Amino acid sequence: MKKVYVNEDWCLGCHLCEFYCAAANSGAPDMIKAFKGGGKKPIARIQVEEGSSVNFAVQCRHCVAHPCVKGCITGALSVKDGVIVCDEERCVGCYTCVLSCPYGTIVIDEEGHKIRKCDLCLSNGNGEPACVKGCPNKAIVYEER
Amino acid sequence: MAINFMNPLFEVVRDPDRCIKCRVCERQCANEVHKYDPDLDKMTANPMTCVDCQRCVCLCPTRALKIKPNENRFRENGNWTQSVMDEVYKQAESGGVLLSAMGNPKDYPVYWDKILLNASQVTNPPIDPLREPMETKTFLGKKNQSISYDENGNAHYEKSPYLELDTPIMFSAMSFGSISKNAHESLARAARELGTFYNTGEGGLHQDFYQYGDNTIVQVASGRFGVFKGYLDAGAAIEIKMGQGAKPGIGGHLPGMKINDEISRTRMIPKGTDAISPAPHHDIYSIEDLRQLVLSLKEATNWEKPVIVKIAAVHNVAAIASGVARSGADIIAIDGFRGGTGAAPTRIRDNVGIPIELALASVDQRLRDEGIRNDVSIVVGGSIRSSADVVKAIALGADAVYIATAALLSLGCHLCRSCNTGKCNWGIATQRADLVKRLNPEIGYRRLINLVHAWDHEIKEMMGGMGINSIEALRGNRLMLRGIGLTQKELDILGIQHAGE
């Protein structure tokens, strides 16, 4: 299965992936509208971890153990073809998944009621994940390993 | 505090309607121009340190940035221009020699742009490169004057070492130290894929790049940095650097702060010490001395590798080249006054040397007149900006060209000419680890290959138009060139006729 991987050798810590992710999942037609359209700032599902010399972006690893799915109290989180997806209609914002994710990649939405997580841009019509497309140094790749 | 006479050269213009305050500009600027002010919730800019490298402009996801020349001008003066005055102020403050980087940017004539190419009509049909074979392969080295046959019909001729190029374009010398390891890796990998050569410059060969040896020209310069038997053996050819177009008559100086562990190991000098290349080779004061070095290097490598001698284009270049051709060198590389550098005294860069077009034409003519043109190949560099420049150079008599500035541009360089500061935002002319990683060789080498492939296609198209199907038939074919807007003297030196003649 194709997944998003980050090579920390090339990650610059520029945070562009976060902005491309947030914009792609905001429903707005472009980045300016997504961030300056009047609403709350859209949330990214990818976060850059910064260190003094090493940076890397992290998003849902779609891990086989998936404690988030196991712990979801409403069945909102499920695994579809290896991708962990969230049915927002069923999410009640209990944040069990936020606590149980070992990578800390599940985030709380703009309103603070539900969770948001990376679904490899499968539902937003973006094609290739937005973080991969937007990375200026090819540090983020979408590939089979 | 003393009055600051210096004016910022540029103005950072940010469109507030487009800026989303993502702070990418702030994170990507090694000169610390951009800053986010949390109290004002606004991005601010300090243009004083901006060098117009365009990194922020290119990475801004909403294209909210523009870098403009500073509109604040000193009182207009045709003689004391703004830049002349700025330089006086700078020196009055620092007391130092002005340093600059990359090639001479002054408004001197560009002869390439005053030369036009021919095309075939009616009687000598053009060739379509997409339908018919077209050869851009070329060989550098001494060419045989004669072949004899014995009674069994076996050919006997002198075998000289040579370089085989799939395209008449090589990457010229840039040392590891002046440019980053990732830049070198991009060049090395591109050279291998393109079937051409890159040049180590005077900084030695990093241990990781010995694997690209078959596509590497190893340089021996006046500092002799990183030179040992294994280094000479690693390359496909050895280049003796006598001079550089950007700074003829001047040596080099890589400041100690750039000599980190890797560069210290590669150059074989202690970490943190200045790497100073003397202006002359201290063992070369005549053509005979040069000959000794050429032959020593050949002896050291078992007479298997061609030796290149690189000289800067200076006033007496034809006579110097004639001497070099007699020194036993297989290839002469001539570097024009527009050639780039990582750092040079501004006055030298801007005022010393001559245009490569004139140097090439006079060297080629001189070697022909003396009957020694076939003893050496000629490679020219120093601002070959496009495939048209390549075609004109070959028609003027070059065997191949060296490109470096164009290669760096394809890696992201925007010619901000601040290499000497060591803070290259594009990860090219820097040794700072956080900046070096900005150049991913995986991207860089592909861009270099794209550039050279594109040029190669264009060269074939132009040759086809002239009814020529090989580089060999274009070489020195000055009938394919016409000058435009040139004086008779210039035409005479270039050895071409005026358009319409």
Number of domains of chain A: 2
What's the average pLDDT of chain A?
Answer: 94
Distance between the termini of chain A: 8 Å
Indicate the CATH topology of the largest domain in chain B: TIM Barrel
Q: Could you give a short account of the major beta sheet of chain A? A: 2 strands, antiparallel
Low-confidence segments of chain A: none
**Tally of individual helices of chain A:** 5
Of all chain pairs, the largest interface belongs to: A-B, 19 and 18 residues
Q: Tell me the number of strands of chain A.
A: 8
Amount of beta strand of chain A = 15-25%
CATH fold name of the largest domain in chain A: Alpha-Beta Plaits
Order of helices and strands of chain A: EHHEEHEEHEEHE
What is the level 1 CATH name of the largest domain in chain A?
A: Alpha Beta
Total domain modules of chain B? 2
Number of helical segments with 4 or more residues of chain B: 16
Tell me which CATH architecture of the largest domain in chain B applies here: Alpha-Beta Barrel
Question: What do you see in this structure?
Answer:
With 145 residues, chain A is α+β, with helices and mostly antiparallel strands. Chain A folds into two domains: 87 residues, Alpha-Beta Plaits (2-Layer Sandwich), CATH 3.30.70; 51 residues, 2-Layer Sandwich (Alpha-Beta Plaits), CATH 3.30.70. In chain A, the strands form four sheets. A two-stranded antiparallel sheet of chain A has the order 1-8. Chain B has 501 residues and is α/β, with parallel strands linked by helices. Chain B folds into two domains: 87 residues, 2-Layer Sandwich (Alpha-Beta Plaits), CATH 3.30.70; 312 residues, Aldolase class I (TIM Barrel, Alpha-Beta Barrel). Chain B contains 16 helices and 23 strands. In chain B, the strands form eight sheets. Chain B has an eight-stranded parallel β-sheet with strand order 11-21-20-18-17-14-13-12. Chain B has a three-stranded mixed β-sheet with strand order 6-22-23, covered by helices on one side. In chain B, strands 1-4 form a two-stranded antiparallel sheet. The radius of gyration of chain B is 24 Å and the shape is globular. The model of chain B has no long low-confidence stretch (mean pLDDT 96).
